[in-house]
Known about the structure:
Largest sheet: 5 strands, antiparallel
Amino acid sequence: MGAHWHVATGLVGYGPDGSDGYGTATDMPTLADxxxxxxxxxxxxxxxGAEGLAESGDFEGAWKTHKRSDALATMAHxxxxxxxDAPIYVGRSDLWHDTIRRMAxxxxxxxxxxxxxxxxxxxxxxxxxHLADLESAA
Length: 138
């Protein structure tokens, strides 16, 4: 298997933590699902954080955190594969795949919290251990 994609979160400035593996996709719909899941998970955590900040009286911090949560939730919706049923994509899966690829490139290095970042990258290593893990799970 050739080129594939990885999705992970990690600390800003340190990169993704691969100790528990990376999300690995060999096709665009799977890549979209992986990114959407990371964004949904991060949006939920940010919403919880915003509520905590508001309860402690840090309303400015709560507002900024809530705005980031909303942006992440929107990004998750943008990667939803149900968008492939939109009239612009019907009968044109190639256009939907190109859209996923473009959005994935834009999502790379997206902050998902004050100290965490979303990492999305294409990997061309045919010996990639994460790809081997994916193949053995199939």
